[in-house]
Write the structure tokens for this entry.
Amino acid sequence: MTAPILAKRRNKQLTVRKAFLRRAKETLLDMKAQVLRGIRDDMKEDREGQKDEGRDTYDVASEERDREINYLLTDRDRGKVQSIDQALERLDEGTYGVCESCEGEITPERLKAMPFTRLCVQCQSEREVEAKRNRRMDDSSAFRRLGTSEGDEEG
């Protein structure tokens, strides 16, 4: 191919990439706003729920359980906001869409499905397999410790 054709193709690729990155940024900002709105709504609901008087023990227990669940969800949402912020930083730095493990390209399809992902499908899969293997090893070593301590008590 001639140089002008290659230059044209390269310019088109850059234009497509810039448009994709612009849409990714909009998606991330929308996701962040939605999560923050949900957190604010949960907090407002929690504060309003505490004002009611004349509740019986079951109402108080149920409300406490709901508050604990909301706290866990809020914690998860906080983590999601942090992941979104980190993705926005990678966008600004020019490293968005690059796998942090293998430094390969993360496919646009994966980025559309999980806009704040840091890993390509292959590296994510490898991490999950490794985590599963580690959990099994931890579980079996805990079982062995339990088995040894029970035997020690009998003798």
